[in-house]
Structures
1.
Amino acid sequence: MTSTRPAPPRARRRPTRPRPAERTLVSPLALAGTRGRLTYRIVLVTVVASATVVFLGPMLLAVTGALKPPAELVRTPPTLLPREWRFSTYTEAWGILNLGHFMWNTFVVVGGAWLFQLGVAVPAAYSLSKLRPVLGRALLGMMLATLMLPAAALLIPTYLTVADVPLLGLNLLNTPWAIWLPLGANAFNVFVLKRFFDQIPADLLEAARLDGAGPVQVMLRIVLPLSRPILAVVSILAVVAAWKDFIWPLVVLQDPQVQTITVYLARISTDMPLNTLIAGMVISSLPVVALFLLFQRQIIAGLSAGALKG
């Protein structure tokens, strides 16, 4: 005689709740009407136009100011567009101010600063993120603590260091080394790169180690190719910071022939016509603007880079 067991009760399915709609500044119901869409477009155009004027206004005034005669530049009230267009001001500024020589000095300083910053920050961030040395967190904390110090407080100690390098007894003043070496120790770059390296899956690195790759090969062949977006962001920040730096090059580059473009333009500002000086400033800013326009996709990709999926 076979005994039949009652069938287990079926699990009741819980009713699925509808996902809440995404919260936005303006509700879809308000945008459905003609009045809502019109108001939204007016506000959007106003905000975008205002931001454009705020950010591009000074640049446009500088470009058009160099095209004005000196008397029109100091006129009250000022004119928005030149009444007399002088396009020759830029060519005169390039020849009279000898901008080519000082632009080359700036390229040398900025290029070396970029290489030193990446050469120090990338291995440091890789070792703190993937190699996990003893007291790594303490070292990172001490690095980040240097960001809390004001730049003015470090000016005199850094100057004394480059004027008489400890143990070596070298005087680095009036040389690019006086700018390259201090800029290489940038805790912000180390922190940003470490946070990105932490997101790289450990399985990729472990597979490379099983294939016989050492720590340096893993960094060069695995980590760096995956980190191109953040490397682009760090590179742009390093180049722009070195290009526009004024106080430190003014202190350590006392020889007029080795000064950067920013220090040189400030030194001759009292001896040059105002329109010629403005034209020199505009020309000196063109490389940075061109660099941003050329690598804007990489910059945006680096700023919005999220976690990597394994």
Note: The first helix runs from residue 28 to 32.
2.
Amino acid sequence: MITALDLRHPRSGDHPLTGRRVPDVDLKTGDSRRRVFELLRTARPVLLDLRGDTALAATAKGWANRVDLVEARSTADHWPVWPVDDTPAPTALLIRPDGHVAWTAHAGATPEPAALRTALTAWFGPTTAD
């Protein structure tokens, strides 16, 4: 409780990660390995694509000046979600600069562009085209 890991921000969607602090799991990006928290060092939002979905990149294009798109693969099948049990690794997630998850696509599910667009607009404003 001192570290506020039990804090859960208002959320949309039913994934256990949404609204919680993202776990610092290992990722494969290209030929290297990185941790999720390394992606947050720029203090910018991160759209983490864990399955190489071209629709995510197309949806996020209007926020490219504000949100970093990172394509990676999870090295773990399950991610720790405190205080609940582990959850299957998601296919994609939008992480706020403070490390809390704003939107998540369920493991094995095709991310819904409309839900991602809603989360991007709610947290980071309208697209550059709007």
Note: The mean pLDDT is 87.
